[in-house]
Amino acid sequence: MGGRPPERPRRLRLACWRAERKSSQVLAMRAKIVLGCTDGNDNQQIAAELRVHPDTVSKWRSRFLRLRLRLRLDGLIDEPRPGRPPSITLDQVEQVVVATLEHTPTGATHWTRASMAKHSGLSKSTIGRIWRDFELKPHRAETFKLSTDPLFVEKVVDAVGLYHHPPERAVALCVDEKSQIQALDRSQPVLPMMPGMPERRTHDYVRNGITSLFAAFNIADGTVIGELHRQHRAAEFKKFLVTTDKTVPTELDVHLICDNYGTHKTPVIKAWLARHPRFHMHFTPTGSSWINQVERWFGYLTDQLIRRGVHKSVQALEMDIRAWVTQWNEDPKPFVWVKAAEEILESLAAYCRRISGA
User: Fold this and answer.
1) Structural domain boundaries of the chain?
2) Closest CA to 203 of 221, 193, 188, 215
3) Which residues make Cβ contacts (< 8 Å) with residue 201, sequence separation at least 6?
4) Which of 37, 43, 82, 202 pairs as cysteine with 57 (C-beta 3.0–4.6 A)?
5) Which run of H or of E encompasses 247?
6) Does residue 57 or residue 21 have the better pLDDT?
């Protein structure tokens, strides 16, 4: 039958050649040239990107168009040479990649090397090599959440602008609460680490109460203002604002970067802010806690103290948290925010274009 060969299989075959480690460098370069052409680039652009002469690009572009066959790419292949033929064909590689990306095995949510080997007739080690070459990891799954905040762009630009260009004669603080930190005690004593044996602890535990940490992370020097309360209502947040007001020198304005938690916007808090005009609130987009630097600091606290901590009372937990914050402030470490707002927005836009229904 005549007609133009389907575009997707040809592009996948070219990608196979480009990624296959056993393919010759010459064939891989030719595949890159053709892929660049299919993306709409001219000869000069492709030559500059691949560091080859424009005549080379023109030669293989013309030969590919002249000699290509349906679902085959003979225009890029040299004449057959003597030697042992490859044990795995590009068709088999393509079938494994397509099955991994577009299908799921019967009775399971994702492929394993064993199930794909049974499905394709190849060995498990071969499946592993193909997945490594194409950076496919069916056993892994990550989480994500896209903000639906109608003011997402404005809030990102506002917060990132403070990170890159903090105002003069002012301090910028990332503020949040780490609520309901549990004082946990294991049901049996923890067995310490020994040579050849990791630390061991029982899977069950005893709850001895909870506390909440209010924290303000200074983006300039990394110091933290921290305060513990047994509850995390607007009343406690107001007390923390009072503590912050007393801590920050009076001649400086205070810019607070907060999330959209309800306690940050109650009438009581708004009235307090109206009486303290040097305080300025900046809210992160809904569902975008990653933009608040204090969340990263909370991660350090969790990893180094809370997750594996053993506390027989809330008082013991609070004592350890206060000591940890004090130790942090003795050698604070600010975080370096690298990406500009435009880069963040473009990265999210590119991600949205990749997923369905965005």
Assistant:
1) 7-80+87-133, 158-188+203-350
2) 188
3) 186, 190, 191, 308
4) 43
5) helix 234-247
6) 57
**DSSP states along 85-105:** PPSS-HHHHHHHHHHHHH---
Kindly list the strands in the beta sheet with 205-218, ordered across the sheet, starting from the edge strand earlier in the chain: 224-229, 205-218, 170-186, 253-258, 279-283
pLDDT in tens, 199-221: 888 888 889 999 999 999 999 99
Amino acid symbol at 166: P
Buried b (16+ CB within 10 A) or exposed e, 79-105: eeeeeeeeeeeeebbbbbbeebeeeeb
The predicted model scores a pTM of 0.69
Rounded CA separation 323/79 (Å): 73
CATH number of 158-188+203-350: 3.30.420.10
User: 241-268: per-residue pLDDT in tens?
Assistant: 999 999 999 999 999 999 988 889 899 9
Cα 20 to Cα 145: distance, rounded to the nearest angstrom: 34
Burial class (CB in 10 A: 0-12, 13-18, 19+), 139: exposed
Q: Are 214 and 325 in contact (CB under 8 A)?
A: no
CA 334/CA 296 separation, integer angstroms: 11
To which residue do tokens 């810019």 refer?
Answer: 255
**Residues contacting residue 211 through CB under 8 Å, at least 6 positions apart:** 181, 183, 228, 229, 230, 314, 317, 318, 321
Q: Which two three-digit tokens encode residue 354?
A: 């990749």
| C-beta separation of 291 from 264 below 8 A | no
